[in-house]
Amino acid sequence: xxxxxxxxxxxxxxxxxxxxxxxxxxxxxxxxxxxxxxxxxxxxxxxxxxxxxxxxxxxxxxxxxxxxxxxxxxxxxxxxxxxxxxxxxxxxxxxxxxxxxxxxxxxxxxxxxxxxxxxxxxxxxxxxxxxxxxxxxxxxxxxxxxxxxxxxxxxxxxxxxxxxxxxxxxxxx
Amino acid sequence: xxxxxxxxxxxxxxxxxxxxxxxxxxxxxxxxxxxxxxxxxxxxxxxxxxxxxxxxxxxxxxxxxxxxxxxxxxxxxxxxxxxxxxxxxxxxxxxxxxxxxxxxxxxxxxxxxxxxxxxxxxxxxxxxxxxxxxxxxxxxxxxxxxxxxxxxxxxxxxxxxxxxxxxxxxxxx
Amino acid sequence: xxxxxxxxxxxxxxxxxxxxxxxxxxxxxxxxxxxxxxxxxxxxxxxxxxxxxxxxxxxxxxxxxxxxxxxxxxxxxxxxxxxxxxxxxxxxxxxxxxxxxxxxxxxxxxxxxxxxxxxxxxxxxxxxxxxxxxxxxxxxxxxxxxxxxxxxxxxxxxxxxxxxxxxxxxxxx
Amino acid sequence: xxxxxxxxxxxxxxxxxxxxxxxxxxxxxxxxxxxxxxxxxxxxxxxxxxxxxxxxxxxxxxxxxxxxxxxxxxxxxxxxxxxxxxxxxxxxxxxxxxxxxxxxxxxxxxxxxxxxxxxxxxxxxxxxxxxxxxxxxxxxxxxxxxxxxxxxxxxxxxxxxxxxxxxxxxxxx
Amino acid sequence: xxxxxxxxxxxxxxxxxxxxxxxxxxxxxxxxxxxxxxxxxxxxxxxxxxxxxxxxxxxxxxxxxxxxxxxxxxxxxxxxxxxxxxxxxxxxxxxxxxxxxxxxxxxxxxxxxxxxxxxxxxxxxxxxxxxxxxxxxxxxxxxxxxxxxxxxxxxxxxxxxxxxxxxxxxxxx
Amino acid sequence: xxxxxxxxxxxxxxxxxxxxxxxxxxxxxxxxxxxxxxxxxxxxxxxxxxxxxxxxxxxxxxxxxxxxxxxxxxxxxxxxxxxxxxxxxxxxxxxxxxxxxxxxxxxxxxxxxxxxxxxxxxxxxxxxxxxxxxxxxxxxxxxxxxxxxxxxxxxxxxxxxxxxxxxxxxxxx
Lengths: 173, 173, 173, 173, 173, 173
Known about the structure:
The structure is a homohexamer. The first copy, chain A, has helices at about 40-55, 55-70, 75, 115-135, and strands at about 30-40, 85-95, 100-110, 140-150, 160. Chain A is of the alpha+beta class. The first copy, chain A, has one domain (about 30-160): Molybdopterin cofactor biosynthesis C (MoaC) domain (Alpha-Beta Plaits, 2-Layer Sandwich). A five-stranded antiparallel beta sheet of chain A has the order 2-3-1-4-5, with helices on one face. In chain A, strand 4 (about 140-150) and strand 5 (about 160) form a beta hairpin. The longest helix of chain A has 19 residues, at about 115-135. The two termini of chain A are about 35 Å apart. Strand 4 of chain C pairs antiparallel with strand 4 of chain E, so a sheet runs across the interface.
């Protein structure tokens, strides 16, 4: 497929940043899923998992951080539109074999534009919060592969990233 | 080195989240550098680079996004302290061979606690803003290896992550 | 009525916090009224009332504080939805017999979910602002009985709290 | 035209501030254009223009500042409604003859109330950001004639300020 | 004690609101403790407590809400100063006999002014978040007796409210 | 005086936006005064003035808006430093002869950098709030001559703009 006809829609014909006009798009159901992995030392994951069993606050705090950040995406991302959200869900899954916490953020809305950035911001903020809470014992943690895993709704339809085929996208109203 | 004596300082003795007390720490110079790479298709990087030569707004917008996000780190990261900053710098370097934009955020302060999270938030917000501005032509971009590259100042002294040895940390007042 | 079938809708089946999905709810008129009393020493109420007659800024500032806080409810309350508001009204009534300022916040919207939290946040912020402005002369002030007085609209219909029967709920569009 | 029948709608019958109820207004297309001029010394404008040709960051930063401020209008302006925006555009035009940078902000929405304040806030924030970035070389800059140049949509229809007749207002959905 | 000599320091000599000048106050250690009770039906408290044992997210979310709100006190309370914080702690204690959750917020700083409002805002936001998360099963919950329980530091010294004598105020740097 | 040696300190040697490093500047007393005039129709000023006598909420709301905006200057102005403030005062003076409301904002701090932008943001937000509250009766209002009237403190010493010589700058700690 030729990319020649596509443009960076956030720049006007003079290359200047602008917030894209979504006024003529339809209000429809849209859902986006973003993912990343927080890579860490084995002892760090063990400390989180032990915490989870007993008290849960590392992952509970990261979940809240992701949800709150999604709501404020238009403050992180200069050209993002302010928009209402139907739901935000942040799922954190420790994977001891891979020595990571898997982060998945799902955001749904009925609006004129998609929620890719809301999902990516939620996943990033949740991942960074895990970093913050564990940095005293592991400075070398990293966020890996922050990505849009899937989206549905809008004119461009459904997209599932290569390697994320297992994922289910719930239907909407 | 045994990790047994270390603790997740953001949890109290009952595992509950809290903002760590920094009241007895000294106000000293602190500098942190965070890095990530924004991986993208070759045509996406070409579109950004062409823009940069002519008008610059993709990278200019991402730089501003990173600087503004650093200032609001305590809103994204629930247990981060509100603190003043001396400077924030976001350096974006397109690397055509690797097909990435390299993101580096440097944050300096004179305060009672470090600015690891400010640097990581700045790098993430700058990277996500590049994603936002280019997502119309490349949905499969990703942020790779969001990490603390180096820090100096504070009781724990200077840290340079493995693989980041080339980096210079400016001195402070 | 049995409460057994009800659930904490802000927790998923594993007890994890989430923002409830409102995507299938109808956009309808909704109005909520919250109330509290700011209890204070007689001389404090006199100082406010004298101020009101002459200049008005204690109550004027508290009214603005309540209106502005209502707009930012989703920042105070982690799982609250970001949503548009039709109106916010904060009514402050000094009651010299009871030695309180009565605070009433009314919030209206046309949206998929109610504005209970917006009304409660507005009433609390207005009350706390009165505390702030008078704390130099009366540290022992308190906010009493911060409560949802009434709501209308949405699937659950109209609710008037016991003891608040006098209250009128305006009709909406 | 008599002004006697008009009222300050942001005050209730007792003169108390309130957020006007827009619940019965129709959701329609609305567009507002605000303008101001940033007056400066000749050498300051030359420094900006030289920068624009080579790198662009003064005006690029001011454009982003205007767009971001528009999104947060309801935080700066106490009685403004929180509302979604379709688009924000900030156009900055150096005018060497007049020794000013002309600032124009265009904001569009489909909502129950107009976006006058969003456009005025965007123009002001862009102008103040130019001040900030150049104040080291010119403290005597000023913002002149911050004004609503035109609006369309809503019950009151189209308005074009005297002296702004040349301006085109794009149509909306 | 005569109150005649005291004034509402947030009003100038004409009764106009202002942010009090703290420039000549010393930077010293200051700690404030605020408290309130969230009154609820027995079945609501049981649902929270059961959650706490198994997963903890109602109270974990409320703790985070309180901590985050404390950091943003100067946004909710118009005349509050923006200031750095050393620590924020929110302690939530279900009391089955009294059918309440007891909320205590402790805030410490080294600054030119006290943190009364930060503690009160944290306690209120934590209490309102409990309301939010449980309102689907209990609309009649209320926040009772939101109060400053104690403070230390600053020119006015240590204050312990009547009825709060048991409370310990930790020392600071 | 030659301007050749001066630079736009908000741009690095490549013209890229950055937050200037203030780490080596001394913490000293600094005060800035900004001013503007809100020009309006005679009947608008009469409505405000009548309001002021009886209830005061237009000017009271504008004062609060200015104070709150000053605290959040680093959100409006991308490269402004987050910093603590000692005081903010907004003085609004209706001038019937000139048919304007005169706006003056005074901001004081002890910090490493000046508060020019805080004063300018406060004056602008207060002026725009007057516009917002009166726009239903007068769309043609404008903000005129938003300017830094005076500053004191910091390495560059005291500055009083031409035409503002009458102004007194209070001393600080």
